[in-house]
């Protein structure tokens, strides 16, 4: 019997085409436990979840017209952490499996190639993997709730569907918008990346956001906008200023009421034009909330989805051989894909776990890599009273992180800094 295969979802189509030796769109979710990880039990947990997550245990294949995903030939093997987070995932590795599982002391980490899922689907897998591991190690029983799935049940059909195809509207919304200010700096040779993590109290952060009349994501986006506005003012003459916009991935599962485990996010660029006036953080919060309120309605999101889905459905595009599609998609992405925002701010949100897991889980981290042209990115996750703000960059200058975390401290949010070191050059 042939192994099962499926088409890439609409969001994933671009990623294999634009990957390179310097850039692969991967992200990482990790949990820190109360005791050291047992590799044998973690491997057993990975194997136990294989039937439950058919859309994740896949390899990337190449067809005549499109890439596709195929069930893995052999199950992924857990590995000790051997390098810096988000080390390059090679094409050869993607042909074996599109995610990898690491362990280091008390930490379990899973890194996903974005073709298979987004942060929402990845979190469901990591929660379920951790739950199964804890069951094996401690003999407890974790109920299937708060994002943990029962590994013994068969996956529902909607879990593996391409939800973009079902939700695209009849009419497509234009993608036209003004080009934003671009952060820049001296690139590290060999693709090295630096990570600086700011640890803050979730309670204090939520209270500051509430007082500003916004959400945690809105508040952090506002502080980030204020920071980048300041950086632009320091490095660019006023007459050459551009809009400052934060790229925020939107979880469409909440908009369209679905729980697909595949990609189902859409990025919105939210920001202001500093040439118009000087903005306070509170004003930036209100502007963020206003723009989100206008965009986060099913009709508008369906029109934005349609702008991508309708292109995929065109017969003239479908029949173009893949070797011709790839350079076209790379060219289009480099021209418009990342020119409308300054930085990606991706908030995984407040992670909740079944009560049975809480005594064993101490921390949850979320980490996205840099984009092709964005030299900086920011990702956030909260668990309990600890919020981890991960700032990653592939340039030497620490100006963005320094100014951003300083502004949080100035606004009454204490920040404890953890700084990673760059890896060796990757062969």
In short:
This protein has 427 residues and is an alpha+beta fold. The chain contains 13 helices and 15 strands.
Provide a descriptive summary of the structure in words.
- The longest helix is centred in the N-terminal third of the chain and has 20 residues, at 119-138.
- Helix 2 (39-48) crosses helix 4, helix 6 packs across helix 7 (216-235) and helix 7 (216-235) packs across helix 13.
- The chain is built from 13 helices and 15 strands.
- The protein starts with a strand and ends in an 8-residue tail after the last strand.
- With 427 residues, it is of the alpha+beta class.
- It has 2 domains: 5-166, 2-Layer Sandwich (Chloramphenicol Acetyltransferase); 174-419, Nonribosomal peptide synthetase, condensation domain (Chloramphenicol Acetyltransferase, 2-Layer Sandwich).
- The strands form 3 sheets. The protein has a 7-stranded mixed β-sheet with strand order 10-9-11-13-14-8-15, sandwiched between helices.
- A hairpin with a 2-residue loop joins strand 13 (376-383) and strand 14 (386-393).
- Strand element count: 15
Contiguous helical run count: 13
- Tell me the count of domains: 2
* Proportion in helices: 25-40%
- What would you give as the CATH superfamily of the largest domain? Nonribosomal peptide synthetase, condensation domain
In the CATH hierarchy, the architecture of the largest domain is 2-Layer Sandwich
As for the CATH topology of the largest domain, it is: Chloramphenicol Acetyltransferase
CATH top level of the largest domain is Alpha Beta
Q: Rg from C-alpha positions? A: 21 Å
Structural class: alpha+beta
Topology as H/E string? Answer: EHEHEEEHEEHHEHHEHEHHHHEEEEHE
């Amino acid at each position: 019997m042939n192994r099962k295969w499926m088409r890439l979802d609409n969001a994933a189509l671009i990623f294999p085409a634009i990957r390179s030796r310097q850039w692969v769109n991967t992200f990482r979710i990790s949990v820190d436990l109360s005791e050291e990880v047992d590799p044998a039990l973690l491997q057993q947990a990975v194997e136990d979840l294989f039937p439950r997550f058919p859309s994740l245990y896949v390899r990337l294949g190449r067809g005549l017209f499109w890439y596709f995903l195929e069930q893995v030939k052999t199950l992924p093997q857990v590995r000790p952490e051997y390098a810096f987070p988000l080390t390059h995932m090679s094409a050869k590795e993607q042909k074996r499996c599109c995610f990898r599982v690491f362990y280091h002391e008390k930490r379990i980490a899973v890194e996903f190639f974005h073709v298979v899922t987004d942060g929402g689907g990845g979190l469901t897998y990591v929660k379920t993997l951790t739950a199964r591991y804890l069951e094996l190690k401690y003999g407890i029983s974790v109920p299937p709730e708060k994002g943990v799935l029962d590994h013994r049940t068969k996956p529902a059909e909607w879990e593996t569907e391409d939800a973009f195809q079902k939700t695209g509207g009849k009419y497509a919304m234009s993608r036209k918008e003004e080009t934003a200010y671009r952060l820049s700096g001296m690139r590290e040779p060999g693709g090295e990346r630096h990570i600086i993590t700011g640890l803050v109290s979730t309670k204090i952060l939520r209270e500051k956001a509430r007082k500003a009349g916004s959400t945690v994501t809105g508040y952090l986006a506002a502080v980030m906008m204020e920071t980048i506005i300041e950086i632009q003012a320091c490095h660019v003459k006023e007459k050459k200023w551009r809009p400052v916009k934060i790229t925020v991935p939107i979880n469409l599962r909440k908009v369209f009421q679905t729980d697909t485990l595949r990609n189902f996010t859409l990025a919105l660029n939210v920001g202001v034009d500093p040439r118009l006036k000087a903005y306070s953080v509170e004003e930036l919060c209100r502007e963020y909330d206003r723009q989100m309120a206008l965009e986060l309605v099913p009709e508008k999101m369906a029109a934005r989805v349609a702008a991508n889905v309708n292109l995929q459905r065109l017969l003239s595009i479908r029949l173009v051989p893949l070797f011709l599609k790839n350079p076209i998609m790379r060219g289009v992405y480099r021209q418009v894909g990342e020119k409308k925002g300054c930085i990606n701010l991706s908030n995984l949100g407040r992670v909740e776990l079944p009560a049975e897991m809480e005594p064993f889980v101490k921390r949850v981290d979320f980490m996205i890599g840099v984009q092709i042209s964005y030299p900086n990115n920011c990702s956030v996750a909260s668990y309990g009273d600890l919020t981890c703000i991960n700032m990653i960059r592939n340039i030497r200058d620490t100006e963005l992180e320094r100014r951003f975390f300083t502004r949080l401290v100035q606004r009454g949010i204490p920040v404890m800094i953890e700084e990673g070191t760059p890896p060796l050059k990757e062969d």
